[in-house]
Design brief:
The protein is mainly α and 89 residues long. It has 3 helices and no strands.
Length: 89
């Protein structure tokens, strides 16, 4: 069903899912240090995936999108953590 949707629909569903996840995280996670640790873990997984792909296949074809997604998640969580810790929301 999702594969046959238009690009605009997929983007809308993805943005809605990210917003829903952020809202759930805001209410469920009270210790913001956990969010920072999750962001660091995601970043390490992305770097590890890239290193594995480079060592195993000696090129990084097909990795850029996945590594960019992991890096974007890391930066988003890190930005949220820094905003919450900075302004104590």
């Amino acid at each position: 069903m999702y594969k046959h949707s238009s690009k605009r629909t997929r983007i809308g569903v993805s943005v809605s899912a990210v917003c829903a996840i952020l809202c759930v995280m805001k209410f469920l996670i009270t210790d913001h240090d956990v969010l920072f640790l999750i962001a660091e873990f995601v970043h390490c997984v992305g770097i590890g995936f890239l290193a594995y792909k480079l060592i195993k296949h000696e090129n990084c074809a097909g990795v850029s999108l996945k590594s960019q997604q992991l890096t974007a998640m890391f930066l988003g969580i890190r930005l949220y953590c820094s905003l919450v810790m900075e302004y104590d929301w």
